[in-house]
Amino acid sequence: MSVTRKAVVLLSGGLDSTTALAIASAEGFEIYAMSFQYGQRHALEIESARKVAAAAGVAKHLVVDFDMRAIGGSALTDEIAVPKDRLDNEAPAEIPVTYVPARNTIFLSFALAWAETLSAEDIFIGVNALDYSGYPDCRPEYIESFERMANLATKAGVEERLRLKIHAPLIEMTKAQIIKTGLELGVDYSLTHSCYDPTREGLACGRCDSCLLRLKGFAEAGARDPLPYASA
C-alpha cells in the first residue's frame, strides 16, 4: 500500500503561494500549510491564507506569530511608504523597500523545523524569479543553497532519514503562466490577496508593485482578476 507523502507549503494567502499549494496538492502530497503573522502592515493576507487553506482541505494550517517590526528596515514592517505607480516592463534596478530582511530564510527555517518534525521531505515555496520585485531570496541559486543547508543542518538530514527537497515550482514562470496554471488546477483567486498597502476597507490599492504585477499577469493570461481594487 502506498503511503501519502507529506509536504509543508508556505502559504502567504497571495496568488503565488496559493498556486504553489495547488500544484503540491495535484502532485498528491498531504498538505501542511504554514503562514506567518510577522508584524506586516495588515492582517488581510492571513485572513486570505485561512480561506485558501480551508478551501484546499489541508491536513493542518499552522499560523506562526512573531514580530519583525522590532527589526524594521522594510516598508512592510516599518514606517516607510510603499512605492506606487513605478512598475514598468523591467525589474526594478534596485531591491525595493518592500523587501523584508531575510524573510524567506526565516520562513523556510520554520518550515524546515516543521518538516523534520512531521518526517516530511518536501517543502513548497511560491517564489518567482521572472515577474517579481527583484528580491534576492527569490532566486534559483538561493533556493538551491537553502536546500543544501537544510540537509546539513538537520538531525534527519545528517542521519540520512530524510532527503529534504525545497520545491519552487513557479520560479521560472511568468505571472501569466502562474495564473493559467492555477486556473487549470481550479484555484479560486478571489480568496487570495496580493496588495502591499490595501485600503481600510480591504480593497487592493492597484498601484503597488504587487498589485501591478498581478494585474499585468491576469491581463496577459486573458483572464479577469476577481479582486476589487481601489484603483486599477
Compact summary:
With 232 residues, the chain is of the alpha/beta class.
Q: What does the model show?
A:
The protein is an alpha/beta fold and 232 residues long. It has a single domain, classed as Rossmann fold (3-Layer(aba) Sandwich). It is 35% helix and 11% strand. It is built from seven helices and five strands; from the N terminus they run βαβαβαβααβαα. The protein has helices at residues 15-26, 44-56, 103-118, 140-153, 155-158, 175-184, 209-221; strands spanning 6-10, 30-37, 60-65, 122-124, 165-167. Strands 3-2-1-4-5 form a five-stranded parallel sheet, sandwiched between helices. α1 links the parallel β1 and β2 (30-37). The chain is globular. The mean pLDDT is 89.
Features:
single chain, 7 helices, Rossmann fold, 35% helix, alpha/beta, five-stranded parallel sheet
Main pleated-sheet profile: 5 strands, parallel
The count of β-strands is: 5
Along the chain, the helix and strand elements come as: EHEHEHEHHEHH
Tally of discrete structural domains: 1
Helix content: 25-40%
| Fraction of residues in β-strands | 5-15%
What is the top-level CATH class? Alpha Beta
